Amino acid sequence: MTRVDVRSDGGRFAAACAELSQTASGLTAAEVDRLLSPQVPGWRLRGDGSVELSWWDLFVLWHYVTMQLTTAGAGSNRAHGGPVFLPWHRLFMIRLEQVLQQVTGDDDLALPWWDWAADGERPVDEQHLGELWSPDHLGPSRGEVDAGPLAALRVRLTQGFAPAVGMFLEAHAPRRIRREAGADPRFGGLPTKADVEAALDAEDYDLGPWDVNAGGFRNLAEGWRRDPPNMHNRVHVWVGGDMGPGTSPNDPVFYLNHCNVDRIWEARRRAPGGLAYAPEASVAGAPAGHRLDDPLVALLGEAMTPAEVLDPTPWYDYDDLDVAG
After folding, report:
1. Which CATH superfamily is domain 2-296 in?
2. Whole-angstrom distance, CA of residue 224 vs CA of residue 17
3. Is the peptide bond prior to 279 cis by the omega test (within 30 degrees of 0)?
4. Tens of pLDDT along 138-176?
């Protein structure tokens, strides 16, 4: 399969996401609670346990659960804030592609990418008005997404917070997603081509202390360095709404963002000199769960290791790897 620019996708991905959100998983929120509460530290599920989750909701659940599995290092968990950030999300997206293909019967369906750095070159006050946010593509950039293919998308899990209990997951009646793209003045505009080029210039994949304070390509791409939040992180907070909390896969823009980050990684990996994954198991101080041969957290399908997903070509390729052009 070939992953293409979302603007040439013709709404195919968006329509498939909406269909998956209407495809029952056979699990209720209460059943998920019984399964996960003994296994996930600090697990809290609130709301309506009778809500039947869709397959789309299960991917939201997978992402949220993985974020609760903290590892050594500042801001690190088994999906973010450390070396595993890129390979874990690669596995996550491969599994979504596979499920979308099964549900739609479209064996060639692939996740598209959004070159947010190209949009980041536009005037800041115009970035939320681009073609991407039309009914033909992803629907409105601000407010409830009530137009286009994603108007039919419904979500049933949202991260919440209460001072007395901390973070929790809430199950609720199906609702549409919301966005507030570019509305928060604290974050300015989208990342730019200069930000992408800065990440591409990194000579190491990752470095100690292997967390949000580390140097290297991964931390620049994730967005904890160079005017943070930047790159991946800034896209999340710039879109806002459902893209903000740990349940951010509620919004299909999540996958467009990560597909572009994955494309940037693949461009750097194939560049002269390559970019070898680090750390390996023998590296002193390397956090468990982030080493080359550690299993990636998988709620759906078999677990794989970073080593097994470093080459994505058994599953997909990109139509364009000119990420800083």
Report:
1. Di-copper center containing domain from catechol oxidase (1.10.1280.10)
2. 29
3. yes
4. 999 999 999 999 999 999 999 999 898 888 999 999 999
